[in-house]
Amino acid sequence: MKIKIGNYPTYRFFYRWLGRFAPRQKVSVKIDRWDTWSMDCTLAHIVLPMLKQFKEINQAQGGSPQVDLKDVPESLHQSDNELEDDGVHEQWNYIIDEMIWAFEQKCSDDWESEFYKYENDTLKLVWNDEKGRIAHQDRMTNGFRLFGKYYEGLWY
Prior knowledge:
Elements: E1 2-5, H1 12-18, E2 27-30, H2 39-61, H3 85-107, E3 116-118, E4 125-128, H4 130-149
Antiparallel strand pairs: 1-2, 3-4
């Protein structure tokens, strides 16, 4: 896989010269056959550092979209007369953190290993935490759901 994405053109004369046609980024993407074998993992390795950088820059910029209260814990809910910017930013940071956590888990090849234990020399299962594994997987799935839901909010 090779991806090359150029910076957005910022020259004002382009806008005047081209009128209503705004200049676009130069984008080149080459996908190899093996890149789609485990596409969820391949994309996770690209998305994760982008989300981390986005969070860092977004915190400095201070922009946050409105989020559904059902997507954040009650401790981050605000009353109707409490529309403080800090609360909106905290809610958005929670959403971003859940996305980052989910993609970190996807990038880890052995996240499930903490929920199973095998005998040293055999493949005999001696302990497992199925409820813990399911809860972990559910949180990952929720992080990916949030990524899809707030995909268009990933800009500043």
